[in-house]
């Protein structure tokens, strides 16, 4: 693989998989305040 | 790659959050959510429902092919000529015409697919879709990761990856490249045609929808990146064995899955195993997609008619399945499928997404309300930046995609198909869908359906187990059932 392709691959992995990691961490920290037993819209 | 990343961050995720906000705030299927936003735009929701019904009709056929190919993989039944095998022996496609000659090899798996889907849908979102996903998505990711690793060891994989990742800076000034990137993001995130509105309507009112949206957006692209690496490594291998450049072996979805992949499977060591894994994964992934488009239709029918899940499932699934079996189990199935797929994607999904986005942002001016709703429990908070992306950047991206598609289709008949086929299953279909949508919207809702604004009991800021604010609140969480 050429150097520019490797750089671009790393950038894409960093943005997408890194973004996924950040989003998961953020969701775990702030999300899920829901009382699971609360009445929901009927499935 | 650069346009793809830009499209994901500027249009894909912001638009996903818009869909989430509409469904989560109004707690209804696509038509009910739009009706609650403003009564006159209920038709947008039914337009989306119509698109989902059409997609379900032909999507099942592709899954049925994948079912057959899972078994074909065992002995690499396609032999030396996967293309001839696919169109000839398997689909028995002849001249471009509508025939009633049934292909048993397609009819039987298609019937099996519909029976399986009927069972999943009757069980409901939680047990049906939830259970399917919890079991099969991890299996899918593992199987796919194994395939990708396998592909990376093929000769020529490096050249394939070069073709995927080498930045082509000159292409950044090409509008059609940007159009392709925006199109890819919109289709793969399935935003703008009801799926995400419907799903969000089921999520508890105090959940962090922004965080979920980010996770969904990034994990979708995360999987696509993995898939892209695998596919391009394989293409590099094919290019090397065939002695041609990588960009000449690449083809689009159907050709890639049913012609290019069988070619690789025949060449690769342990090809039968890879084939079963690949096509098996395709079947499972396809069924989860099929279930999500059908759920849009079923939940809309339930909201409008006040029927139980089982009744709505039968009312929706049986006619859709019958049409699907009639159109796609014959020797002319492939042509109809190709035309419907192209037109419903380009002029169904993209147009309804663009129109609904513009209406919500510029006619109703609801973006501030919607971002306020998401911000109650959502982190990171969204604000003016999101509103700019949703009201300007994403619509411009969509309009660009549409403009290029329209130019191509007006200049030359799609794939050289005869005019009557394109008029009936292409242009005709995409014009009928919004018309039918706005006609259905004129039918009355069942008595007692809350229509103006979000339903009582849906305020995300209200404390848990709050005393009911009034008689209307009693037992009306969700307000639709």
Describe what this molecule looks like in 3D:
Chain A has 43 residues and is mostly helical. Helix content of chain A is 65%, strand content 0%. With 481 residues, chain B is mainly alpha-helical. Helix content of chain B is 74%, strand content 0%. Chain B contains 18 helices and no strands. In chain B, helix 1 (2-26) packs across helix 9 (195-202), helix 3 runs antiparallel to helix 13 and helix 5 (104-123) crosses helix 6. The longest helix of chain B is centred in the middle third of the chain and has 35 residues, at 271-305. The two termini of chain B are 45 Å apart. Mean pLDDT of chain B is 85; it is low at 466-481. The chains are: A mainly alpha (43), B mainly alpha (481). Chains A and B meet through helix 1 of A and helix 1, helix 7 and helix 10 of B.
The number of E-state strands of chain B comes to 0
Which bin fits the share of residues in helices of chain A?
Answer: 55-70%
Biggest sheet details of chain A: none
Approximately how much beta-strand content do the residues of chain B carry?
A: under 5%
What is the 3D form of chain A?
Answer: rod-shaped
Q: If you compute it from the alpha carbons, what radius of gyration of chain B comes out, rounded to the nearest whole angstrom? A: 23 Å
Give unreliable regions of chain B as ranges: 466-481
Helix content of chain B: over 70%
The count of helical stretches of chain A stands at 1
Q: What global shape of chain B is seen?
A: globular
Strand content of chain A: under 5%
Distance between the termini of chain B: 45 Å
């Amino acid at each position: 693989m050429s150097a520019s392709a490797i750089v671009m691959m790393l950038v894409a992995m960093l943005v997408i998989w890194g973004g996924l990691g950040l989003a998961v961490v953020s969701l775990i920290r702030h999300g899920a305040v829901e009382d699971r037993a609360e009445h929901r819209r009927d499935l | 790659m650069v346009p793809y990343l830009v499209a994901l961050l500027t249009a894909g995720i912001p638009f996903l959050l818009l869909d989430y906000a509409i469904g989560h705030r109004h707690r209804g299927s696509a038509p009910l959510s739009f009706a609650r936003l403003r009564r006159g735009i209920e038709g947008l929701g039914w337009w989306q429902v119509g698109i989902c019904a059409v997609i379900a009709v032909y999507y099942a056929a592709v899954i049925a092919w994948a079912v057959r190919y899972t078994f074909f993989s065992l002995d690499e039944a396609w032999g030396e000529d996967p293309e001839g095998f696919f169109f000839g022996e398997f689909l028995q496609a002849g001249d471009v015409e509508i025939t009633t000659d049934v292909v048993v090899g397609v009819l039987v798996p298609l019937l099996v697919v519909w029976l399986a889907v009927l069972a999943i849908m009757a069980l409901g979102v939680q047990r049906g879709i939830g259970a399917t996903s919890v079991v099969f998505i991890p299996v899918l990711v593992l199987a796919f990761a194994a395939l990708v690793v396998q592909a990376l060891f093929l000769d020529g994989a490096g050249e394939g990856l070069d073709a995927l990742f080498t930045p082509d800076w000159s292409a950044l000034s090409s509008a059609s490249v940007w159009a392709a990137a925006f199109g890819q993001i919109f289709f793969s995130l399935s935003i703008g045609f009801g799926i995400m509105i419907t799903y969000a309507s089921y999520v508890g009112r105090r959940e962090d929808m922004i965080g979920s949206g980010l996770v969904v957006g990034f994990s979708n692209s995360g999987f696509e990146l993995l898939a892209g690496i695998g596919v391009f490594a394989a293409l590099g291998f094919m290019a090397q064995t065939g002695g041609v450049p990588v960009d000449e072996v690449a083809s689009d979805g159907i050709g890639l899955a049913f012609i290019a992949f069988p070619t690789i499977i025949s060449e690769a060591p342990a090809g039968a195993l890879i084939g079963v894994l690949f096509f098996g994964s395709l079947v499972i992934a396809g069924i989860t997609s099929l279930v999500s488009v059908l759920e849009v239709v079923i939940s809309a029918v339930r909201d409008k008619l006040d029927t139980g899940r089982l009744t709505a499932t039968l009312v929706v699934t049986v006619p859709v399945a019958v049409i699907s079996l009639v159109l796609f189990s014959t020797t002319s199935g492939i042509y109809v499928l190709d035309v419907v797929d192209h037109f419903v994607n380009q002029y169904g999904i993209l147009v309804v997404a663009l129109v609904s986005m513009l209406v919500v942002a510029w006619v109703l001016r609801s973006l501030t309300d919607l971002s306020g709703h998401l911000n109650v429990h959502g982190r990171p908070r969204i604000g003016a930046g999101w509103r700019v992306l949703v009201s300007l950047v994403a619509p411009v991206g969509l309009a660009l995609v549409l403009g290029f598609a329209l130019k191509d289709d007006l200049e030359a008949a799609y794939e050289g198909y005869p005019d009557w086929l394109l008029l009936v299953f292409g242009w005709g279909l995409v014009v009928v869908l919004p018309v039918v949508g706005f006609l259905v919207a004129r039918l009355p809702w069942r008595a007692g359906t809350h229509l103006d604004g979000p339903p009582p009991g849906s305020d995300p800021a209200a404390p848990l187990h709050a005393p009911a604010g009034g008689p209307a609140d009693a037992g009306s969480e969700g307000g639709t059932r």
